[in-house]
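Homework help thread (please don't just give me the answer)

Our assignment gives two proteins as sequence + structure token strings and asks us to describe the second one. The first is just a warm-up. Here they are:
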Amino acid sequence: MSAVAPGRGAPTVAVPSFGSTLEGTGRLIRFILRRDRARIFWWTFSIVFFYAYFMVALDALGAEALVGRALLMESPSGIVMGGPGYGLDAYTPERAVANEGITWFVLALGVMSVLHMVRHTRSEEESGRSELVRANPVGRHAPAVASVVTLVLVNAVIAVLSAMTLIGIGGEYVTFADSFAITSGVACASMVFGLVGLVFAQLTVSGRGAVGLGMVVLGLGFVVRAVGDVAETGGSTLSWFSPFAWAQQMRPFVDLIWWPILLSAGSIAILLLVASVLGSRRDFGGGLLPDRIGPATATASLRGPIALAWRQQRFALLVVTAFFAAMWLGVGTMLPTIGEMVGSLIESNPQFGAVFGDPGDPSGFLGLVMLEGVLFVGAYAIVMGARPKAEENAGRAEIALARPVSRTRWFGAHILVTGIGVVIAVAVPILAVWVGAVAVGFDRQSFGDYALVAATYVPSALCYLGFTVALYGWFPRATGLGWLLLVYGFVIGLFGSLIQDLPEAANYINPIYWVPGVFETPDLGEWLGVAVVALGLCVLGMIGFRRRDIPAV
């Protein structure tokens, strides 16, 4: 006999309590830690190693070299690449680590945090694995909470180990409070960007969309901090709108203050609340900003692998190019001010003349800014170069290759579209500098001069794509190692002078090494050589892709 009489209404549905939405969180935390144990180890090892290395290397420079380094950090380019410049009057190794390192530690851990949050939330839903997990007794919010908890644990471990490392190898001026201030400030600032990634994971329907938007916010934070610090000594009001500044304004090893970390803590709490509200209002597997429904049949222009690759990559290229163009347009408008600042620095301290030369020439500043820009483009090339791997993992590559499409056409289409995107991502921001400079009457160089600068950077940027393509073609599981070339180029390019007895050959595998100075005529042989290397790596990846199984197991 039925327990419910006909016509008496539907059975009562039990409404889960708040606690049930977190069921299984502990098991998911253990699962994430086990699944990411190698990734967590290498992130932790790398950050702790760089803290230790910079402290040791800066200490080995000696007092005279540190004075010269302090002079560089007073310049606009030093402020952009480092920070507001606290403690430059008595520059010590620990102050140098804080002044020059905080920006880059926040940037690195910010990238890690965004990737971590999106990988274990939106990407899991997109792949369908999260649906299988939730078929078990797992609450609605458990995956997100487990991702947040594991990110807190990772950042906390990195902060504690880094602080203990600084204390262990530092001198008498490296105090317990200052060491934990610098590492905890960095950890909290990076957590802010991780929670931004979680918010975007609720809005978008794809993992790459959430990652892309999170990286845009990370880059915007860098730019806001840089512009604000250049505008006023010690940082302006604009600087305080960036999480980068919240870590720097704690002033470790100079005049320690703790309250700026509360800005990071408050932002984390607000972003958690926003992500929770958004997550409760969306359908599982969907986003609050759903994909636009397209036509039932494709037009003739979309029936081909190149059109498909373009459709998959166009949004990322648009966002990256627009962001870079806006950022470098602002740099161009700042060139007259930067030239005046360099001139006044030379007047107040003649030693600057040996470093910067012409008082009104901002080429040194432009060189560092454009180096930073090419590194960002290199990151874009690596992400888009790994796009075929995402298609293979999702099973879409097999479907495409089941059609009358050869492997060469399919893979070559992705390489071609990404290569064109890299060229655009290099050219547009550099030409935006020219537009900004002309707009404020600073027309010392012509359009052709800036176009030549863009052309000299293109082969080096394409090397990052070629290296990623070669890894994917032959060793698809190792595609992520493409980031090693970018990290190597960054470390050698910005901190190579700190490495004692660095052999010249160590620079040869750094693509940026072969780029001449800004507005200098490139060596045609070197330019062609780098271009051939980039093309050869792409061809090598194509050969490997044609020879191996799909999907790779």
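The one we have to describe:
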Amino acid sequence: MTVAHERSDAPYSSRSAAPPKPAAHLILALLQRSRGAFAFALTACVLNGIASVMLVATLNRALSQPSSADSALAWRFALCAIVALMTRVISGVLFARLSQDTMAQLREHVARRVAAAELRDVERIGAAPVQSVLTDDATNVSMLFFALPNIVMHGSIVFGCLGYLAWLSWPVCLLALTAIVTGSLGYHTGDKRAIASLEAAGKAQDKLFGYLGALFAGAKELKLHRARSQQFVEGQLGAAIGEVRDHRRRAFSAYAVGVGWIIFLFYAFLGAAAFWPSLGVRADTPAAAGYVIVFLFMLVPLDGLLNNLPTVNAARVSLDRIENVMSEFGDVAATPPTPAEARAAHAPFSTLTLRGVTHSYFHERDERMFRIGPVDLTFRPGELVFIVGGNGSGKTTLAKVLTGLYEPEGGVIEVDGAPVGANERAAYRERFTAVFNDFHLFDALLGIVDPNDASHADADARANALVAKLALDHKVQVVDGAFSTRALSTGQRKRLALVIAYLEDRPLYLFDEWAADQDPAFKAVFYEQLLPELRARGKTVIVITHDDRYFRLADRVLKLENGKVVNETFGAGARLAVIGEAGNGTVG
């Protein structure tokens, strides 16, 4: 993920990640709101298993003892069939709803954690692992709820059949248990290899999502160079696709071998029970027929039980991956804005001061650690300040520290003499409106229009007036609090970002190379009309720029080199203010 044009995508300092929580903890948390439905669905599955075992027992009695096959036995058979049908349908519907509810809650959980995380963690981790979690891993977790009813029902049937076998003949039951236990030991060996392969597939998928992002982000470069496109698609992207495929092949092949091994042992048990007289399990013809019926009836649910276990293991691996990824974002939950944060968005102030502020990160271009600061600056309302300097001088990083997006490693930020600590940082950020060079334009006036207010007429009118002022009314309109289109050039979308900034009406404004994508006419409008207008409204306006022809309009121009403020000059606005104060006798 590209963070800024002058810095790497990984800040130097990074908060230690919270330890991941067990997968069971996460799934229980997700099921908290649906625990009643979950318990009812599990009960239905168990009842289905009991009804199914009673079906085979009733059928076995009717076949082995024809004299007892009366109407009462037939009604019992019909009742068991109806109960089995109803409980299967009920459990299937409930688990289908739980599956989709859990996937939605999981995605909301991930989205909230990412939204609440510090910017440096978001930039460091990138989008690829989160996209993998929200798609493949979330799907694996949701599939758990399609596997659970089968596991519970089939497990109930298998255990019920074993109990029925024990009632018919203890030697036969012990022989069946021996086959199942022996097969399970072999299955467990393959299961360990399969889980390792699933975990490796998850890591490979993170890499795959990174390459898929590059497929879109680098579309222009790929179109212009066919050899590059071929090497990327067939080389890097193709290798990542193949790696995911190979790991999953190994995992599910191991499961297939394990299932086949257990079923083979079950066939061996069936043959031993039928053809090995010395075991003492051979019975008369009706009893042997009963064994065969139970064996064959148990074979299908045993196969279904084993074939659903890979889904459970895949979900368990995905839950662990989700918590591992989320732990990288820190253990911070998204919360609604507090009253203090809401007040801070429009609260007046006298001074904003940086005292000895420092911040370090890895400078990708020079392959070295880069440090900004120590920076000592003071900003006041009604002031227009330009920040200038070459690429890589630290301007954007300083802007992110100033706006509270990065936490200073050293020094302190003060508002009217009060230091901004960890507890105050969220409220401090609410004082700023910023349009960064790598900005994102949302499709609606989020945070400006009240979603509970059905009428957006006032907000629409104010927004459309600004759209017209920026000469975009022929391309886009604001309707019901949303832009009619975002299919615009970068410069035009930046103008819409400026519309949102104006509507936010906060005390501090920061623009990072806003005019870089504008034609000369709109550069003039931005510097000569919009910025002075904001200053006249008492806003503190900070502009990162290279447009030296407009430096004269600033009250101050701060020059950065190698992360330090090396020069501070006063523009024409500041000089006029000083002259006016001298004429009033206020300046010595």
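TA reply:
I won't write it for you, but here's a hint about the kind of observation we're looking for: Residues 339-441+486-581 form a domain with the Rossmann fold fold (CATH 3.40.50.300).
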